[in-house]
Amino acid sequence: MYIIFGLLLGVVLGLVLKINIPDQFTSYVSIAILACIDSVFGAIRGNLYKNFQADIFISGFFGNAILAAALAYLGDKLGVPIYLAAVLVFGGRIFDNFANIRRKLLENYKSSKDKNSDTV
Amino acid sequence: MKRLNARVSVMVVCIILSFILTSQFRNILNKSKYYDTTATSDITVELESLKSQKEALEKSVTELQTKISQYEKSSTEKNGKTTQILEELNNTRLVTGQTDVKGQGVTVTLIPKTGLLGTPSEEGRINDRDIIVILNELRFAGAEAIAVNDIRITGYSGIRNSGSYIMVNNDERVLPMKKVEIKAIGKKEDLQSSLDIFQQANDFTGVFEMKVEPSDDITINRYLKSYSFQYAKSVNEVK
């Protein structure tokens, strides 16, 4: 509920406020977005496993985004594609988290079904 | 309280995430508007049409020139005196490069050195100066007609680097990353021996490979444009 409301509010803000990110920064922003998505998936997983901690989530969200963008920038300056490291790690973790979420949800679904059939 | 905190923090993060996402999306969509592919295809179509126009115009030039030569012939047949004038005219055309010519001569091919993966390297670029010194050498060896990539070199031709091209005759382009072919008509032994000496005196091996091939049948097309003198007037005329 909070998540969906937040997402919608963000979309509206993004459409209303015309903030133009300069062209040369777009690649860094993309990497930062990847890091953020990873954090959100982590949060969903943490929520499902009941070990979600808000402070860890917030620090991870901003810390990962900033570190990823900084690494991409540094890689650009050094001529080494360090951003690949961020893409690999975050991409891998997103899939990993998603697999965990899927399993947990299916387990929950099955157990609730079993309970229902027991009672009937 | 702790739970509420967590929810609010998640909401704030979601707002930020979707905000960045939408603005980034908008940016990228805007960008793709600027680099519309239809513009490039329009330019290609225009280029093609201009090319065909140029070909048609060149055809009409040849037709008109054959007509002129027919008139000249018929006028000399009527009047014997004009034969000498016609001969002189033809001679002048040879000198100014306004007729197609053929005869023995040499073909000089300059092949730029390529980089590791077959890509043209920056050092492998043929420069205007390289072509100019070769033309100079050919002229000294008695070349009577010269063409660079089938662009006729006249007494008024200029050659110079222009961006990534070499401009010849002010508006014709030669790609310096690809091979350049210089054709010259003259006594082929003279041309070849002088180029051999030239090659030993000048080391181009790091930049490009130079091949000289003598031949008995070299055709060089005429200079297609007409000369127009705006400032130089004949002294007798001015007086």
Shape of chain A: elongated
Low-confidence stretches of chain B: none
Derived from helix and strand composition plus strand pairing, the structural class of chain A reads: mainly alpha
Question: So how many helices of chain A?
Answer: 4
Tally of discrete structural domains of chain A: 1
Strand runs of chain A, count: 0
- Which structural class is indicated by helix and strand composition of chain B? alpha+beta
Strand content of chain A: under 5%
How many β strands of chain B by DSSP?
8
**CATH H level of the domain at 103-220 in chain B: which superfamily?**
Protein of unknown function DUF881
Architecture (CATH level 2) name of the domain at 103-220 in chain B: 2-Layer Sandwich
Q: How are helices and strands ordered from N to C of chain A?
A: HHHH
* Largest beta-sheet details of chain B: 5 strands, antiparallel
Number of helices of chain B: 6
Mean pLDDT of chain A: 83
What is the element string of chain B, with H for helices and E for strands? HHHEHEEEEEEHEH
Shape of chain B: elongated
Largest sheet of chain A: none
Low-confidence sequence ranges of chain A: none
Please tag this protein with its features.
heterodimer; A: mainly alpha; B: 239 residues; alpha+beta; five-stranded antiparallel sheet; elongated
Structure description:
The complex is a heterodimer of chains A (120) and B (239). Chain A is built from 4 helices and no strands. Chain A is mainly alpha-helical and 120 residues long. Chain A has one domain (24-119). The two termini of chain A are 31 Å apart. The model of chain B has no long low-confidence stretch (mean pLDDT 82). The N and C termini of chain B lie far apart (108 Å). Chain B has a domain at 103-220: Protein of unknown function DUF881 (Alpha-Beta Plaits, 2-Layer Sandwich). In chain B, the strands form 2 sheets. Chain B has a 5-stranded antiparallel β-sheet, with helices on one face. Chain B is α+β, with helices and mostly antiparallel strands and 239 residues long. The A-B interface holds A 2-3, 5-11, 13-15, 17, 19-21, 23, 26, 29-30, 32-33, 36-37, 39-40, 43, 52, 54, 57-58, 61 and B 2, 5-28, 31.
